[in-house]
Write a structure and sequence with these properties.
266 residues; mainly beta; Jelly Rolls; eight-stranded mixed beta sheet; eight-stranded antiparallel beta sheet; 40% strand; globular
Amino acid sequence: MVRRWCIPLAGAALVVGSVAASAPAAAAGWAPHSPATVHRIQPGGRMIRPGSPLIGHGVPRNSSQSSNWSGYAATGSFTSASASWTEPTGHCTSARRYSAFWVGLDGFNSQSVEQTGSSVDCSRGSPVYYSWYEMYPANPVNFSNTVRPGDHFSGSVTFNGGSSYTLVLRDTTQGWSHTVHKTLAGAANSSAEVIAEAPCCTASGGVLPLANFGTVNFSNATANGSPIGSFGPTKINMVDNNGRLKDRTSALSGGGSFSDTWLRAN
Protein backbone atom coordinates (compact mmCIF):
# COMPACT_ATOMS: atom_id res chain seq x y z
CA MET A 1 0.00 0.00 0.00
CA VAL A 2 1.44 3.36 -1.02
CA ARG A 3 1.27 5.92 1.73
CA ARG A 4 -1.79 8.15 1.64
CA TRP A 5 -2.24 11.32 3.61
CA CYS A 6 -4.98 10.92 6.21
CA ILE A 7 -7.73 13.53 5.97
CA PRO A 8 -10.81 14.18 8.12
CA LEU A 9 -14.15 12.69 7.10
CA ALA A 10 -17.19 14.58 8.30
CA GLY A 11 -20.19 12.72 9.62
CA ALA A 12 -18.86 9.18 9.29
CA ALA A 13 -21.43 6.68 10.58
CA LEU A 14 -20.43 3.87 12.91
CA VAL A 15 -22.16 0.56 13.57
CA VAL A 16 -20.45 -1.53 16.23
CA GLY A 17 -20.62 -5.25 15.52
CA SER A 18 -21.94 -4.61 12.01
CA VAL A 19 -21.00 -2.37 9.08
CA ALA A 20 -21.36 1.23 8.00
CA ALA A 21 -23.19 2.22 4.85
CA SER A 22 -21.30 2.19 1.57
CA ALA A 23 -19.39 5.39 0.94
CA PRO A 24 -19.06 5.76 -2.84
CA ALA A 25 -19.76 9.49 -2.68
CA ALA A 26 -16.71 10.10 -0.53
CA ALA A 27 -14.89 7.05 -1.93
CA ALA A 28 -13.55 6.76 1.59
CA GLY A 29 -12.47 3.96 3.86
CA TRP A 30 -13.77 3.38 7.36
CA ALA A 31 -13.26 5.96 10.09
CA PRO A 32 -14.21 4.55 13.51
CA HIS A 33 -13.04 7.55 15.53
CA SER A 34 -14.51 10.50 17.35
CA PRO A 35 -15.07 13.50 15.04
CA ALA A 36 -12.07 15.32 16.51
CA THR A 37 -9.64 12.56 15.57
CA VAL A 38 -11.12 11.03 12.42
CA HIS A 39 -8.64 9.79 9.83
CA ARG A 40 -9.19 7.94 6.59
CA ILE A 41 -8.78 4.19 6.95
CA GLN A 42 -7.54 2.28 3.91
CA PRO A 43 -8.07 -1.48 3.97
CA GLY A 44 -6.35 -3.03 1.00
CA GLY A 45 -3.57 -1.59 -1.12
CA ARG A 46 -0.01 -2.39 -2.16
CA MET A 47 2.42 -4.36 -0.07
CA ILE A 48 4.86 -2.19 1.87
CA ARG A 49 8.34 -3.58 2.41
CA PRO A 50 9.98 -2.59 5.72
CA GLY A 51 12.13 0.50 5.46
CA SER A 52 10.75 1.45 2.03
CA PRO A 53 7.02 2.20 2.02
CA LEU A 54 7.05 3.57 -1.52
CA ILE A 55 9.59 1.49 -3.43
CA GLY A 56 10.02 -2.29 -3.32
CA HIS A 57 13.37 -4.08 -3.27
CA GLY A 58 12.77 -6.84 -5.80
CA VAL A 59 10.68 -9.99 -5.62
CA PRO A 60 11.73 -12.64 -3.07
CA ARG A 61 11.50 -16.23 -4.28
CA ASN A 62 10.16 -18.05 -1.24
CA SER A 63 9.67 -15.64 1.65
CA SER A 64 9.31 -11.95 2.28
CA GLN A 65 8.72 -9.44 5.05
CA SER A 66 6.16 -6.67 4.92
CA SER A 67 5.03 -3.83 7.16
CA ASN A 68 1.38 -4.37 6.26
CA TRP A 69 0.82 -7.81 4.62
CA SER A 70 0.96 -11.41 5.76
CA GLY A 71 -0.15 -14.47 3.83
CA TYR A 72 0.80 -15.81 0.40
CA ALA A 73 1.43 -14.20 -2.99
CA ALA A 74 2.07 -16.06 -6.25
CA THR A 75 3.91 -14.20 -9.01
CA GLY A 76 3.60 -14.69 -12.75
CA SER A 77 0.67 -13.98 -15.05
CA PHE A 78 -2.75 -14.31 -13.42
CA THR A 79 -6.34 -13.77 -14.46
CA SER A 80 -8.06 -14.90 -11.25
CA ALA A 81 -7.64 -15.37 -7.52
CA SER A 82 -10.09 -16.76 -4.99
CA ALA A 83 -10.21 -17.86 -1.36
CA SER A 84 -12.49 -18.54 1.58
CA TRP A 85 -12.03 -17.43 5.19
CA THR A 86 -13.87 -17.13 8.48
CA GLU A 87 -14.28 -13.66 9.94
CA PRO A 88 -12.22 -13.69 13.15
CA THR A 89 -13.25 -12.21 16.47
CA GLY A 90 -11.70 -8.87 17.37
CA HIS A 91 -10.20 -8.70 20.87
CA CYS A 92 -10.26 -5.02 21.75
CA THR A 93 -8.96 -2.72 24.45
CA SER A 94 -9.46 1.04 24.54
CA ALA A 95 -6.75 1.47 21.90
CA ARG A 96 -7.74 1.93 18.26
CA ARG A 97 -6.61 -0.99 16.09
CA TYR A 98 -7.29 -2.17 12.52
CA SER A 99 -7.15 -5.34 10.40
CA ALA A 100 -8.32 -6.58 6.99
CA PHE A 101 -8.58 -9.98 5.25
CA TRP A 102 -8.79 -10.22 1.49
CA VAL A 103 -8.12 -11.89 -1.84
CA GLY A 104 -6.88 -10.11 -4.93
CA LEU A 105 -4.62 -9.61 -7.91
CA ASP A 106 -1.52 -7.38 -8.08
CA GLY A 107 0.13 -5.21 -5.42
CA PHE A 108 3.04 -7.52 -4.55
CA ASN A 109 5.28 -6.25 -7.33
CA SER A 110 3.06 -3.72 -9.11
CA GLN A 111 1.41 -0.36 -8.56
CA SER A 112 -2.26 -1.41 -8.52
CA VAL A 113 -4.34 -3.93 -6.57
CA GLU A 114 -7.77 -5.35 -7.39
CA GLN A 115 -9.17 -6.86 -4.19
CA THR A 116 -12.16 -7.57 -1.98
CA GLY A 117 -12.45 -8.63 1.63
CA SER A 118 -13.60 -8.02 5.20
CA SER A 119 -12.24 -6.24 8.25
CA VAL A 120 -12.41 -5.98 12.00
CA ASP A 121 -11.29 -2.76 13.68
CA CYS A 122 -11.29 -1.74 17.34
CA SER A 123 -13.04 1.48 18.33
CA ARG A 124 -13.72 2.61 21.90
CA GLY A 125 -13.05 -0.89 23.16
CA SER A 126 -15.48 -2.63 20.80
CA PRO A 127 -14.92 -4.54 17.54
CA VAL A 128 -16.31 -3.12 14.29
CA TYR A 129 -16.93 -5.60 11.46
CA TYR A 130 -17.45 -4.67 7.80
CA SER A 131 -16.64 -5.62 4.19
CA TRP A 132 -15.40 -3.79 1.12
CA TYR A 133 -13.75 -3.87 -2.32
CA GLU A 134 -10.94 -1.77 -3.73
CA MET A 135 -9.46 -1.07 -7.14
CA TYR A 136 -6.29 0.53 -5.81
CA PRO A 137 -5.07 3.27 -6.27
CA ALA A 138 -8.74 4.31 -6.08
CA ASN A 139 -10.09 4.39 -2.53
CA PRO A 140 -11.98 1.41 -1.07
CA VAL A 141 -15.78 1.23 -1.10
CA ASN A 142 -17.60 -0.38 1.84
CA PHE A 143 -20.59 -2.69 1.52
CA SER A 144 -23.52 -1.93 3.82
CA ASN A 145 -24.31 -5.53 4.81
CA THR A 146 -24.02 -6.94 8.32
CA VAL A 147 -20.78 -8.74 9.15
CA ARG A 148 -20.30 -10.73 12.35
CA PRO A 149 -17.47 -12.83 13.78
CA GLY A 150 -17.65 -16.42 12.61
CA ASP A 151 -19.17 -15.49 9.24
CA HIS A 152 -17.95 -17.64 6.37
CA PHE A 153 -16.67 -15.58 3.43
CA SER A 154 -15.66 -16.46 -0.09
CA GLY A 155 -14.14 -13.94 -2.44
CA SER A 156 -12.78 -13.83 -5.97
CA VAL A 157 -11.23 -11.36 -8.38
CA THR A 158 -11.24 -12.12 -12.11
CA PHE A 159 -9.58 -10.29 -14.98
CA ASN A 160 -11.90 -10.48 -17.99
CA GLY A 161 -9.54 -9.00 -20.58
CA GLY A 162 -8.97 -5.44 -21.72
CA SER A 163 -9.34 -3.41 -18.52
CA SER A 164 -12.36 -5.29 -17.12
CA TYR A 165 -12.53 -6.99 -13.70
CA THR A 166 -15.23 -8.81 -11.76
CA LEU A 167 -15.03 -8.86 -7.97
CA VAL A 168 -17.30 -11.19 -5.98
CA LEU A 169 -17.70 -11.29 -2.20
CA ARG A 170 -20.13 -13.65 -0.44
CA ASP A 171 -21.04 -13.95 3.22
CA THR A 172 -22.67 -17.37 3.20
CA THR A 173 -23.52 -17.15 6.92
CA GLN A 174 -25.52 -13.91 6.57
CA GLY A 175 -26.77 -14.90 3.11
CA TRP A 176 -25.63 -11.90 1.10
CA SER A 177 -23.31 -11.44 -1.87
CA HIS A 178 -22.00 -8.69 -4.13
CA THR A 179 -20.74 -8.89 -7.70
CA VAL A 180 -18.91 -5.74 -8.78
CA HIS A 181 -17.83 -4.98 -12.35
CA LYS A 182 -15.03 -2.42 -12.59
CA THR A 183 -12.41 -1.25 -15.05
CA LEU A 184 -8.76 -0.46 -14.41
CA ALA A 185 -6.43 0.32 -17.29
CA GLY A 186 -2.82 -0.80 -17.26
CA ALA A 187 -2.93 -3.26 -14.34
CA ALA A 188 -0.07 -5.75 -14.43
CA ASN A 189 -1.96 -8.91 -13.42
CA SER A 190 1.42 -10.09 -12.16
CA SER A 191 0.50 -11.57 -8.78
CA ALA A 192 -2.33 -13.34 -6.98
CA GLU A 193 -2.55 -13.15 -3.20
CA VAL A 194 -4.53 -14.03 -0.09
CA ILE A 195 -3.67 -11.61 2.70
CA ALA A 196 -4.22 -10.48 6.29
CA GLU A 197 -3.33 -6.80 6.48
CA ALA A 198 -2.68 -3.88 8.78
CA PRO A 199 -4.36 -1.05 6.83
CA CYS A 200 -3.13 2.48 6.21
CA CYS A 201 -2.90 5.27 7.60
CA THR A 202 -1.56 7.06 10.63
CA ALA A 203 -1.57 10.86 10.68
CA SER A 204 1.93 10.73 9.18
CA GLY A 205 0.83 8.28 6.46
CA GLY A 206 2.18 5.03 7.93
CA VAL A 207 0.68 1.63 8.70
CA LEU A 208 -1.97 1.53 11.43
CA PRO A 209 -1.66 -0.66 14.56
CA LEU A 210 -2.85 -4.20 13.86
CA ALA A 211 -6.06 -5.24 15.64
CA ASN A 212 -5.90 -8.41 17.71
CA PHE A 213 -7.93 -10.76 15.52
CA GLY A 214 -6.66 -13.92 17.22
CA THR A 215 -6.32 -16.31 14.30
CA VAL A 216 -7.85 -16.04 10.84
CA ASN A 217 -8.15 -19.22 8.77
CA PHE A 218 -7.99 -19.12 4.97
CA SER A 219 -8.92 -22.06 2.74
CA ASN A 220 -9.43 -22.92 -0.93
CA ALA A 221 -6.89 -20.31 -1.98
CA THR A 222 -6.50 -20.50 -5.75
CA ALA A 223 -4.79 -18.66 -8.60
CA ASN A 224 -5.93 -19.20 -12.19
CA GLY A 225 -8.25 -21.89 -10.82
CA SER A 226 -5.49 -24.03 -9.29
CA PRO A 227 -4.32 -24.22 -5.66
CA ILE A 228 -2.08 -21.26 -4.98
CA GLY A 229 0.55 -23.65 -3.61
CA SER A 230 1.10 -25.08 -7.09
CA PHE A 231 2.72 -21.78 -8.15
CA GLY A 232 5.47 -21.79 -5.49
CA PRO A 233 4.05 -18.71 -3.78
CA THR A 234 5.96 -16.34 -1.54
CA LYS A 235 5.17 -16.65 2.16
CA ILE A 236 4.81 -13.17 3.66
CA ASN A 237 5.30 -12.30 7.32
CA MET A 238 4.25 -8.96 8.76
CA VAL A 239 6.95 -7.26 10.85
CA ASP A 240 7.47 -4.01 12.72
CA ASN A 241 10.31 -1.57 12.03
CA ASN A 242 12.63 -3.65 14.23
CA GLY A 243 11.90 -6.85 12.33
CA ARG A 244 9.70 -8.38 15.04
CA LEU A 245 6.76 -10.44 13.84
CA LYS A 246 3.37 -8.73 14.14
CA ASP A 247 1.58 -11.92 13.19
CA ARG A 248 2.63 -15.42 12.13
CA THR A 249 1.76 -17.05 8.80
CA SER A 250 1.48 -20.83 8.89
CA ALA A 251 2.69 -23.24 6.23
CA LEU A 252 0.32 -24.05 3.39
CA SER A 253 -1.79 -27.16 3.87
CA GLY A 254 -3.16 -28.99 0.85
CA GLY A 255 -1.88 -26.26 -1.44
CA GLY A 256 -4.55 -23.74 -0.46
CA SER A 257 -5.14 -23.49 3.30
CA PHE A 258 -3.23 -21.54 5.95
CA SER A 259 -3.73 -19.38 9.01
CA ASP A 260 -2.44 -16.07 10.32
CA THR A 261 -2.13 -15.54 14.06
CA TRP A 262 -1.88 -12.08 15.69
CA LEU A 263 1.18 -11.41 17.85
CA ARG A 264 1.45 -7.64 18.38
CA ALA A 265 -0.16 -4.37 17.31
CA ASN A 266 3.01 -2.65 16.06
